[in-house]
Write a structure and sequence with these properties.
The chain is mainly beta. 12% of the residues lie in helices and 43% in strands. Strands 10, 11, 15, 16, 17, 18, 19, 20, 21, 22, 25, 26, 28 and 29 form a 14-stranded mixed beta sheet that branches. Strands 3, 4, 6, 7 and 8 form a five-stranded antiparallel beta sheet that branches. The two termini are 25 Å apart.
Length: 837
């Protein structure tokens, strides 16, 4: 459905409309039509009157005004009839009216109520689908009422009497088509009665409602009134009556394509009000569309509305198309592996109607979301939190009482979330809350930082939480939670990937023998060095120790007297450069980095994901020579280095598992390839071994993003991390980045900028340089020297950001981003428009 604006003359007074070209008022023939209610004689506004010649062709049309009148002009002398149509009343055709050249005539039309309301029409569930609605009386009655507003709307395409405010949007929903995950809107103003128009009927029905694009995607078209009223549509679709328990007070006229057309088409239902006979909306879905796996995910809806002068227009429309992806892990046994990952909805609506002199007639009601954000860890309202509807531009900041209001929100189901420095200090991401917004209503929403007890429970794996709630042998299982950060003793840096082991002795008395056995729990720290151990026993002395590569920290002994949470940071003494070696497989010194490359990863059980320790692994050349070998540790972790880059063969062997043999691995110079290898138990039918590697953007690869990230200097956020964070605006990406401060700017019209504490000089602020797709958009510099910040929120729309790099000090900044104010730090943004879409 394409957006089209049309302006033309329309009669809104009693006198009528200006004459078309080549017809003068002095020589034209005219008929003054007066429409009235048969039972009362009262004038009828909005009657659709048509001037017909002897063959029934329509020569002129219009809508009666508040006095029930409209002046029709005939293009030539002759004999004519006038037809009058109004929803809920029977149509009437006048007796013949003969007009000589320049003569005027008068026609009075009395329109009665329909004797049989639509509510009394019986629907046969076994009813046959008929090619033309006029073939059956009940069908003809319902079709006549559905046709009237569509005919008026099609006629109105050439008229222009109102100024419309139109909002169009594109939104992505979840796979169920319920929750809005992303939305972009834009508004415009046009002088038209028809804000949306489709392709010509012959083109749509001849080539199909779904077209393949050159890039492999598909374009879905929807019908407008011109299409639905066309002979081409009526000749290729059949109709039948229907009712639905989900549509109380409505009767449906269902249509579907006939014959094996073999091209994408539509089937759907016109829904009319039983009492007033007014057309409410049309809903449809696509047939013969690409990919049968999409099921009913592709379809659309068109809603109609009556304007004050009796004209009808499409008030709201939407088209939904499935977002598909292929899951190669299930593409077997006749299953194509194609899955619906989401729904993309494109549509629009008329949100305001005014006269040409800008007098407001009506405005569509929107909804709102209001509520409070609470900090349950401190039992206080959370002031200064940024509340947003995920994936949209709707956002607000909480006041001192934690209150917020989001106004002018369209109807839909959204996920609300919030950000705040308090979340970063706790090291958590607050869960989103689903909210449903309805027109003219305020949705109440309560958001909160969870209590510490809830945070501890969320940190534990589901199976550990279930075990803690179980009562084996009639005795409740009481457990505690331990968390913290693993740091390098010499520098204080966090150690990503460090292992944390909790050990204790479990004593079991089986008279007359008392036995003791060693028990342990082990977890691995995340990319920020944080760890959480769930299921720590109560009333037992435990020993906690951290390890990284071959280094172990000093053990910490403690005991829990009751189920509780305790935060303990652990330390490991590492030699200089050890963290850089672990992160990149190379030293910080580029000279030492040459020739160091290999693979690292984990060996896991295929179904359960449990680590496989003490497995033998190796890398061989194409000739079969073993270049590196080793064994996995207790966490299934391995690392192998080879003297050169190239293509190698990876093998793994473990007792009780089917061997992994000759898996091809690509290794680049100076880089470690990261693998996750799964082995199937030998006792079962061997499933394909899954070897996964990081999914990389070709654009970012060409721009050197991954190369700089692998060097271990700076803070990097790739596409997958940005997708998980769902930021509302660009500066939301900086929350949680150590040493970064987000600040309001006077120049940004509400936008925000950032500076780094490493660039903070005395009482002055040092603004960082900002690049977008390698283009310098802000030179940065000292505020005292007159440098002004660039509002990053105004530089780039957050939905366009593909990745981000942050360099907080000169020691981190790559040579390609050095500049006169690099000492203040550098921010590099990569966008989809820059080639990374």
């Amino acid at each position: 459905m394409r957006h089209r604006a049309v302006a033309a003359c329309v009669a809104i007074g009693a006198a009528g409309c200006a004459l078309p070209p080549l017809v003068s008022a002095a020589s034209a023939q005219s008929v003054l039509v007066e429409a009235m209610a048969e039972e009362s004689g009262a004038p009828l506004v909005g009657v659709f009157v048509s001037l017909l010649d002897d063959d029934g062709h329509v020569l002129a049309r219009g809508l009666t005004n508040a006095s029930g009148r409209f002046l029709l002009f005939a293009p030539r002398p002759g004999t004519f009839r006038v037809r009058g149509e109004l929803i809920g009343r029977e149509s009437r055709v006048s007796p013949p009216v003969a007009l000589r050249a320049g003569e005027s005539g008068r026609v009075a039309l009395s329109l009665p109520w329909h004797a049989l309301p639509l509510a009394e029409i019986r629907v046969d569930v076994q009813g046959r689908c008929r090619l033309r609605p006029a073939e059956a009386s009940a069908l003809a009655r319902v079709w006549e009422e559905a046709r009237k507003p569509m005919a008026v709307q099609a006629w109105a395409e050439g008229e222009g009497a109102y100024r419309l405010e139109i909002s169009t949007y594109e939104r992505d929903l979840d796979a169920a088509g319920r929750r809005v995950e992303r939305e972009q809107r834009r508004g415009t103003r046009v002088v038209t009665r028809v804000p949306f128009a489709s392709l010509p009927p012959e083109e749509l029905l001849g080539e199909g409602f779904v077209r393949r694009l050159d890039d492999g995607g598909y374009l879905y078209y929807g019908p407008d009134a011109t299409v639905l009223l066309s002979d081409a549509f009526l000749d290729t679709h059949c109709f039948r009556l229907t009712r639905s328990g989900g549509r109380p007070g409505a009767i449906g006229l269902t249509f579907e394509p006939v014959g094996a057309r073999g091209r994408p088409d539509i089937q759907g239902t016109f829904w009319l009000d039983e009492e007033t006979a007014a057309l409410r909306f049309i809903e449809y879905r696509y047939t013969n569309a690409p990919f049968a796996e999409a099921g009913g995910g592709a379809g659309g809806r068109v809603e109609f509305r009556a304007l004050p002068d009796g004209a009808w227009m499409i008030e709201r429309w939407s088209i939904r198309a499935p977002l598909l992806a292929r899951d190669h892990t299930v593409a077997r046994g006749g299953d194509s592996g194609i899955r619906v990952t989401g729904i993309r909805e494109t549509g629009g609506e008329v949100i305001g109607v005014s006269t040409l002199d800008r007098r407001r007639i009506s405005r569509v009601e929107r909804g709102s979301v209001r509520g409070v954000v609470w900090d349950s860890t401190l039992s206080v309202p959370l002031a200064g939190a940024s509340v947003y509807l995920s994936g949209t531009q709707y956002g607000a900041r909480t006041d001192a009482g934690g209150r917020f209001v989001l106004d002018d929100v369209p109807a839909g189901t959204f996920t609300a979330g919030f950000t705040h420095p308090r979340l970063d200090s706790l090291g958590i991401v607050a869960p989103g809350a689903e909210t449903e917004v309805a027109a003219g209503r305020a949705a109440e929403l309560a958001l909160a930082i969870p209590s510490l007890a809830t945070i501890r429970l969320a940190a534990c794996r589901a199976e550990e939480a279930a075990a803690a709630a179980a009562e084996p042998a009639g005795r409740p299982v009481a457990s505690a939670v331990l968390s913290g950060v693993v740091r390098n003793r010499s520098s204080g840096e966090a150690i990503p990937g460090a292992s944390v082991r909790v050990e204790w002795q479990e004593v079991e008395a089986v008279q007359p023998i008392v036995r003791s056995r060693s028990r342990w729990l082990e977890v691995r720290a995340d990319e920020e060095g944080r760890y959480t151990v769930c299921g720590v026993p109560v009333d037992e002395a435990v020993r906690v120790r951290a390890a990284f590569l071959t280094r172990r920290g000093e053990p910490v002994e403690l005991a829990f007297a009751e189920p509780a949470h305790r935060a303990i940071d652990l330390e490991i003494g590492l030699p200089p450069g050890a963290l850089a070696d672990a992160a990149t497989g190379a030293s910080r010194d580029p000279a030492q980095a040459r020739g160091v490359q290999g693979v690292q990863g984990r060996l896991l059980e295929h179904d359960s994901g449990r680590p496989i320790p003490t497995a033998d692994i190796s890398l061989r050349s194409g000739s079969g020579a073993v270049l590196a070998s080793g064994t996995t540790d207790e966490a299934g972790f391995f690392r192998l280095q080879v003297p050169r880059s190239g293509r190698f063969l990876f093998s793994a062997r473990a007792l009780g598992y089917a061997d992994v043999g000759d898996e091809v691995v690509e290794i680049e110079a100076g880089k470690l390839s990261v693998l996750e290898v799964r082995m199937a138990p030998d006792a079962f039918e061997i499933e394909p071994i899954v070897v996964t590697a990081e999914r990389r953007s070709f654009h970012l690869e060409m721009q050197g993003f991954y190369r700089r990230r692998d060097e271990g200097l700076g803070v990097f956020m790739g596409p997958e991390l940005l997708e998980r964070r769902s930021p509302q605006k660009a500066t939301d990406l900086f929350f949680g980045v150590p040493g970064v401060t987000v600040i309001e700017t006077a120049q940004g019209a509400g936008g925000q900028s950032v500076y780094f504490r490493s660039g903070f000089r005395g009482d002055d602020i040092c603004w960082p340089m900002v690049y977008v797709d390698h283009h310098l958009v802000s030179t940065g510099g000292l505020a005292a020297a007159g440098a002004e910040p660039r509002a990053i929120d105004d530089v780039v729309f957050v939905a366009d950001i593909l990745a981000m790099e942050v360099f907080r000090s000169p020691a981190e900044i790559p040579s390609e981003f050095h500049g006169p104010n690099a000492g203040c730090g550098v921010v590099v943004l990569w966008t989809r428009r820059g080639g990374g879409g």
